[in-house]
Design goal:
Blueprint lengths: L4 H15 L2 H4 L3 E2 L2 E2 L1 H8 L5 H4 L1 H16 L15 H4 L14 H42 L1
Antiparallel strand pairs: 1-2
Length: 145
């Protein structure tokens, strides 16, 4: 049986959710809720899908309730109230940074981490090649003492 548009959107939403950590979800918070526009865009469907697919909206709201229970989301802000992603974090949630960053910046930082880890591995390899020489120098230092 072929997958309908609504079912496809639910599948896309669930796949998107499974890929993200709580830290990454912070970038999608706006006004104490997940930003529907950016979430829809990240999942690959239109913002109007939230209004036309009640099951999809229920999935999103269930995720928001779950995130509130874990302290990632605070209480929702009303119209005109100040508050952004940094205000929504619960103080119990120490593993999540309080300065929320955008998805693009998070992607750049993730890429930089991968580059540095790769460079670190290369340096460890160089150390292995020169460890015998380092051992000789260490022994020479002991002999002089």
């Amino acid at each position: 049986m072929a997958e309908t548009g609504g079912q496809k959107n639910i599948r896309l939403f669930k796949e998107w959710r499974e890929k993200l950590t709580d830290k990454e979800l912070v970038g999608f918070i706006r006004g104490g809720n997940l930003n529907r526009t950016t979430v829809a865009k990240a999942c690959g469907f239109s913002k109007s899908s939230w209004g036309s697919n009640k099951d999809l909206l229920d999935e999103l709201e269930a995720l928001e309730i779950e995130l509130r229970g874990r302290g990632v989301l605070g209480k929702p802000k009303g119209k005109g109230e100040k508050g952004g992603a940094a205000d929504t974090l619960n103080s119990k949630s120490k593993d999540i940074t309080t300065g929320a960053i955008g998805v693009a910046e998070a992607a750049k930082l993730h890429q930089r981490i991968l580059e540095l880890e790769s460079e670190n591995e290369a340096l460890k390899g160089n150390y292995g090649r020169f460890s015998e020489v380092a051992e000789v120098y260490r022994r020479l230092g002991q002999i002089k003492s």
